[in-house]
Amino acid sequence: MTTTSIPAIATKRIAKSRISEVDFNNLEFGKYISDHMLMVDYVNGKWQEPSILPFGDIMMSPAMLSLHYGQSVFEGMKAFRNKNGDICIFRPQKHSERLNKSLARMCMPEIPEELFIQSLHAIVETDESWIPTSEGASLYIRPVVFAYEPRLGVKIADHFKFFVLTSPAGAYFSKPTRLKVEETFVRAAEGGTGFAKCAGNYGGAFYPTQVARQEGFDQVLWTDAKEHKYIDEAGVMNVMFVIDGKVITPKLTTALLDGVTRDTIIKLAPSLGMTVEERRVSVAEIEEAFKKGTLTEAFGAGTAAVVSPIAAINIHGVDYTVPTVTSNSFQQRAKEKLNNIRLGFEPDVHGWNYIIPAAR
Length: 360
Ligand code: COI
What we know:
With 360 residues, the protein is an alpha+beta fold.
């Protein structure tokens, strides 16, 4: 989809850009926030007009409901400068759908797709000079919605804010990750908020992840809350395996995030000659596949993580090493295809790219 113009948005520009402070050769994920932010208020039962202002602190009441009762959800998306110099925002409709599912689960007002996409368009265009062009880098987009109303009573807020920040970002993981299959702690139970991108899911994962880090792992590989028998996801990414030449990934439940990169890879797999099985994946099956040598790949898929190779998985205290990625690995080919589509080197047959043409 190519869109040349959107309705004008009230904009207050920063007096002096901070872009010279950015080390574009070393874009640690999340370190730099671009010059501007977009804000929209939800009051009197409807979303108001957006405005763009310099990135900075905002006034908040210590009694703000999101601080006390956790009504806060977010998204993570990416924009690129494609081979023609145009801006490409990847799959904004899918992110809009997911955000609205998260909002509904948290009793927060949905954001019309048009407002969401116009907001992304406006803020990315405003800070387009912050879009990195080095290989593997992108402008990470962080839309957030949170309860703004001050009140101590346990209630659904009536006043919310939606804002969008952007951040030039490089790779999320600098090397293949070591994961630990989690058998004590739980990220999400079926019927809970695991599928929603709400802030509490991440805060609740900090302690188990810290414990795993102290044991020498990078991330936790979460298992189902009931039996710790089936693999869910890795918290900042979904997981996929190649076993016996087939791509296998845990099927979505209410306890797993419906990852956009996960969905993208599933849709690209047939064109790469691979079939995908979305189903329950037991820890025992993975352990057995390691032992038999039939597991040839394990990787994470996420917006921030893109396609991230997994180096090792610890199951019941035993480290199993995943074979090294080669140029012929499925994950490598999938990652290349995904990047080629976003950068315009391959046709976007699925209509995933939202293109903002370069000013010429
Ligand atoms: C993303 O991939 O966008 C995420 O939200 C994961 C993490 C950076 C929170």
